[in-house]
Every structure is written in structure tokens, then in C-alpha cells.
Amino acid sequence: MENDVWPNGMPSVGQTAERSRSVSARDIELFTEISGDRNPIHYDEAAAKRTAFGGVVVQGGVTTAILNAVVAEDLPGPGTVFLQVNWKFKAPVRPGDTITGRVVIKNVRDDKPITELSTEVIRDDGTVVIEGDAVCYTMPLTG
Q: pTM higher than 0.70, yes or no?
């Protein structure tokens, strides 16, 4: 594959990357501004306590965003977009949690800059909150 597509070299099967960040109540507010998601489980502690979650949880889009960052910044890297994702939401994330998004290269096509990834997001207590896979396309950023 051309160097303008893979400036850091073509990814290889088994290669991994991860990033971590703390999630805050401000993240909920910012995501609400973008999405319009005003579900009470994200804001109303009393209402959220009456649910199976037992308290306020951040939107799934906030949690999956860490995977966007890993894919676009680290592996496969700049110029990469998701073509397809298949994610299972397994546990809640709450304001104050630190999450780690991790990707593992499962397959790299020889004919096109397309990669298949295993993906997961893990809470700081070791709980896997999201798991699944994704297919990505990486385009050259040079003119």
C-alpha cells in the first residue's frame, strides 16, 4: 500500500492501540448540545436511580467516541473513517469514570486501505463496557 495512505507504515494483524480519558458531567452536556439527547437517565439522578442503571449514565455516543479517537489518531491513523461498526453495550459509564478504548487489527486488505478491527472500551475498574468490531477505510491526506 502506498506511503501516502499509511504514512506510519501499513498496519499489521495483531497490532494494537489504546487511549484513555476521564468522563465528566460536562461531556454529557456537550454531547446533548450536539445530539439533542436529553434522556433523563443522563441528567436526573432521582429518575436514573429508579432504572436498572441505578444512577446517571453518560450517553453511548460519549463512550464510543474514545474509539473514534483511537482509530483516527493512532491505529489505523489519520485519514481513517468507520465504514461499519458492530458494538455491544455491556455496562454503563458514569461521570467520573475513566475509560480506555482499545483496537486490535484483525485483517488488512492488500488491494484497498481497509482494515477490520476488534474494539472494546473498558472502565477503570476493569469492566468491559463496549465490545465489538469495526471496518475502517483510510484515505490519503496528501494532495
A: yes
Work out the pLDDT band at 4, boundaries 50, 70, 90: confident
CA distance 46 to 120: 30
Tell me the C-alpha distance between 89 and 16, whole Å. Answer: 21
C-alpha to C-alpha distance for 102 and 56, rounded to whole angstroms:
24
Structural element, H or E, at residue 134: strand 128-138
**Can you tell me the distance from the alpha carbon of 51 to that of 48, in angstroms, rounded to the nearest whole number?**
5
Q: SS3 string of 52-85?
A: CCCCCCCCHHHHHHHHHHHHHHHCCCCCEEEEEE
Half-sphere CA count of 96, side-chain side, radius 13 A:
4
Q: CA 75, CA 78: separation in Å to the nearest integer? A: 8
Q: Are 57 and 50 in contact (CB under 8 A)?
A: no
Which are the contacts of 2, defined by CB distance < 8 A and separation ≥ 6?
Answer: 140
